[in-house]
Every structure is written in C-alpha cells, then in structure tokens.
Write a structure and sequence with these properties.
9 helices; alpha/beta; 48% helix; Rossmann fold; 269 residues
C-alpha cells in the first residue's frame, strides 16, 4: 500500500519536536506540503530543514496555541502561502506533573487550554477553509492517559485528553456532510526527548519489558497512523479513536507485577 499525499497541505501544531516533528517529516515523505506551527522559533528552524529535505514546501510559524488572534494570523499565513489546507493535526500539548492537591485554578485552566482548547481554536480557524472545498482530514492526538490509565500528577492531562475524544466524535458527526473526517489517536508511552527527561532509565526498561511487543513506542508509530488516516485509504473512517500502545492497555496488571518481580529476582532489572 503506497500513500501519495502530493498536492495536499498539512498543518501540524506542536510540530517542531517529538511526535509532532515525526508527523511533519512523515507527511512530507509522502508528498504533503507542511506548515509547522510551534511556539519555539529555534525548534522550528531545525524542523523546517528536516521537512524540506523531503522535497516539499515547508512553512514555519510561531504561535501560542492558546491565543485565538495568534492562531488566526498563523492560519491566514498558511492560506496565503498554499491557498488551501487539507489536513490538520492537533498535536500540541504539555504534561508537567503536579499533584492534584497542589494544582491552582490558574494552572488547571492553563493546562486545559494547551491540551484541549488549542484543538478547538485551531479547528475553528481551519474548518471554514475545508468546508468550502468539501474536503478535509482532522487528526487529534489524545492519549491512553485518562481513557484507559490513570496517572498520578496528570489529572488535568487525563481530563483534557478524554475530552479531546468526545470533541472528535461529535465534530466528526457534524462535519461529515462536508466530506471532512475527524479521528483521534491515543498513543501509549512514546519515547521522545520529553519522556526521556521525566522517565528514569529503570522506568523505561520496565516499560519495554511489560509491553506485549517488548519495546517502547516510537514517534514513527504514531506518525504512520496519522498518514494512513489522512490518506484516501481511510476515507470511510471518521469519529474513531485509534490506540497506538503496542497492546499495553489490554495487559493484565497482575501479569505485569509478576514479570517485574521475576526479573528483579533474576537480577535482570
């Protein structure tokens, strides 16, 4: 199966590093022109170089994903450059850990804005463009956190990512008459620079061992699903949540504990 996205224009939020960068590069590899929107100008410069190596046009724009005026300006620049937007990947997010008891209302609102409201704002700016062309592909990057797993210190993240799935399903129903599909992806733990900064080597090793596929998820695992969902092969798929976790969510917790204890007894952990 060969995916050809030539002539398509994609917008990837938070697309300059981690999973977002891999999505940007992979879309470009399949022929799509890519507009990367990120708050870091330094990361944007490096990301653009990687995308342009794929032989497509690339546009980098700095924007605060929680500010409507900045988002509208960025999307206007994309339309000015490419005259269309076919694909939107709402990837931007943040996940600093903080115990619930220590969360202020200000922190809660800030994190909900980054992880959920940002998708609303970008989609709000892009959908009218897609409706006029009677075509569009919207992908929302959710998480297994809040949907399948509860994680201490990430209450706001779980709430936002679960909300993103509800947003996806209802929006898919509303936009279907315009031939716009809307789907969500829920990654499990994915080995990105951000994860490496907060996970210990032991935690990473345990994750690799307990996963049914015996490895950590990689950004390419998510990017490949994005490419499929925005391709013509997935034109009859909408309102769906695709879990990308190597089978982690169906692992029996007892078996996980048993395996970890056995590994420690054998000195392998």
């Amino acid at each position: 199966m060969s995916v050809n996205l030539s002539g398509r224009v994609a917008v990837v939020t938070g697309g300059a590093r981690g999973i977002g960068l891999e999505i940007s590069i992979t879309l470009a590899k399949h022929g799509a022109h890519v507009a990367i929107i990120d708050k870091s100008a330094e990361d944007l410069e490096k990301a653009l170089e990687e995308v342009e190596k794929q032989g497509v046009k690339a546009l980098g724009l700095t924007s605060d994903a929680t500010k409507r005026d900045q988002i509208d300006r960025a999307i206007s620049e994309v339309v000015k450059e490419f005259n269309q937007i076919d694909i939107l990947v709402n990837n931007v997010g943040a996940y600093p850990r903080k115990p619930f008891i220590e969360m202020t209302e200000e922190f809660w609102r800030e994190m909900i804005d980054v992880n959920l409201t940002s998708a609303f704002l970008f989609t709000k700016a892009v959908v009218p463009i897609m409706m006029k062309r009677m075509y569009g592909r919207i992908i929302n990057i959710s998480s297994i956190t809040g949907l399948y797993h509860g994680v201490p210190g990430l209450v706001y993240y779980g709430a936002a990512k679960a909300g993103l799935v509800g947003f996806t399903k209802c929006l898919a129903a509303e936009l279907a008459p315009y031939k716009i599909t809307v789907n969500a992806i829920a990654p499990g733990p994915i080995l990105t620079p951000g994860v490496r900064s907060i996970w210990s080597p032991e935690d990473i090793r345990i994750q690799e061992l307990v996963n049914p596929l015996k490895r950590f998820g990689l950004p390419r695992d998510v990017a490949n699903v994005v490419v499929f969902l925005v391709s013509d092969y997935a034109e009859f798929i909408t309102g769906q949540l695709i879990v990308v976790d190597g089978g982690l969510t169906f692992v029996n917790p007892r078996q996980v504990v048993k395996e970890i204890l056995e590994l420690k007894q054998r000195g392998e952990l």
